[in-house]
Amino acid sequence: MARSYWDINLEEMIGVGVHFGHGTRKWIPRMAPYISGKRKGIHITNLTRTACSLSETCDLVFDAASRGKHFLIVGTKDKAVDSVASATIRARCHYVNKKWLGDNRNQTIFSTIRNSEELRGGAIEQLEKARARLRKLEIEAENYKNESIHFEQQRARNKVRQRVFQQALQGALETLNSYLNNELHLRTISANIGMLGTMKI
Fold first, then answer.
1. What residues form DSSP beta bridges with 73?
2. Both 83 and 54 in a single domain?
3. Closest by CA position to 63, among listed 118, 130, 141, 4
4. Is 80 in the same domain as 42?
5. Model-level pTM?
6. What is the mean pLDDT of residues 13-20?
7. Which residues face 96 on adjacent strands?
8. I need a surface site. Which of 71, 96, 101, 127 has the fewest CB within 10 A?
């Protein structure tokens, strides 16, 4: 879609009263560059600057529409209601052309938003707590794993010690048994010698 020249006609703008601004009592000092004068208590808008800003706005809207962006057109003044509706329907845009008076609906919407924020905050808090619990479980699992490894290592060492002790004990018993056998053998020999000595030939 090629950008086209925007047909902005100052006479038409004057004809529909675009140059009429707000009352002089309601003006804002920073709007002075956009005001060309005043008439009967009403500021007269500088249409030259208005036309330039309108052209820039048309360029901005054109670029946004080219990228598939959506628009919401708002105009709630009595004279703008029908124009807003017909223009936005032709452009297939969303629009608001009726004033929304402050009532219980506003409070309901604000309450819903506030509740949503509170729910979101509560969900985030619960998520943080869940993460903390998960981290605690991970630490406990790591500690249990380390304790299990330490226990297995200790049990292996105990088995080695037990095996060495059994081997040592078995060796000691064998040595003692051998000593006792030798002692018994010597005593038997001594007894036999003594018996032979007392025998008469």
1. 95
2. no
3. 4
4. no
5. 0.42
6. 81
7. 74
8. 101
Query: Are 88 and 94 a contacting pair, CB within 8 Å?
Result: yes
The secondary element (H helix, E strand) that includes residue 96 is strand 94-96
Residues in the chain, overall count:
201
Which pair of structure tokens corresponds to residue 25? 């009592």
What are 37-44's contacts with CB under 8 Å, separation 24+?
44/19, 44/20
Q: For residue range 83-104, what is the model confidence (pLDDT) as tens digits?
A: 888 888 888 888 888 876 655 5
Distances (CA, A) of 51 to 8, 31, 119, 123: 7, 16, 47, 50
In angstroms, how far is the first alpha carbon of the chain from the final one?
Answer: 148
Q: Of the candidates 49, 46, 100, which has an alpha carbon nearest to the alpha carbon of residue 76?
A: 100
Quote the pLDDT of residue 174.
78
* Domain-embedded: residue 188: no
Query: Are residue 7 and residue 26 in the same domain, yes or no?
Result: yes
Is residue 74 a part of any domain in this protein?
yes
- Residue 35 is part of which domain span? 1-68
